[in-house]
UniProtKB/TrEMBL annotation:
Protein origin, superkingdom: Bacteria
UniProt name for this protein: Predicted nucleotidyltransferase
Organism: Chromohalobacter canadensis
Signal peptide: none
PANTHER family tied to this protein: NUCLEOTIDYLTRANSFERASE, PROTEIN ADENYLYLTRANSFERASE MNTA
Transferase found in the keyword field: yes
Domain Polymerase beta nucleotidyltransferase: 16-110
């Protein structure tokens, strides 16, 4: 999707507005088919977020992005399953790597927190995946 199309997408603009209202959000990425420009009208919006805080309770940590997706879908009048949100801090490294390498940063309140997450993901990718491929492939 060209950047001009991102600016004209009413759902993405509404998602940016929703992000502004949450003090616990640092950054917002679009990834998946819409970020690649390979979507169709019924494609969902795949969103990754970086939070400003860490939920210590594992259940709360896991549910927070899913509950946010439900809230945002309702607020924007989107159909069920039109929005998928993942917390980049707990996403599997291959998914997180795809988000930061192929996704599009939509909104960034705290660049330092975003860069911290990106650095963590790049380091883990290098250590966990590139290193093992070099030695075991």
């Amino acid at each position: 999707m060209p950047n001009a199309a991102l600016l004209d997408d009413t759902v993405l603009n509404a998602l940016r507005d929703q992000a502004e209202e949450r003090a616990d959000l640092a950054s917002l990425w679009l990834y998946g088919s819409r970020a690649r420009g390979a979507h169709h009208a019924q494609s969902d919006y795949d969103i990754a977020v970086a939070f400003t805080d860490w939920q210590h309770d594992p259940l709360e940590r896991r549910l927070r992005p899913e509950l946010m997706a439900l809230d945002w879908q309702a607020a924007l009048g989107l159909p069920e399953n039109a929005l998928s949100i993942v917390d980049i801090a707990i996403a599997p490294i291959p998914l997180a790597w795809t988000i930061i390498s192929d996704g599009i940063l939509l909104w960034d309140r705290h660049p330092s927190l975003r860069m911290q997450q990106e650095s963590r993901i790049m380091s883990r990718w290098e250590i966990d995946y590139l290193h093992s491929r070099k030695h075991y492939d």
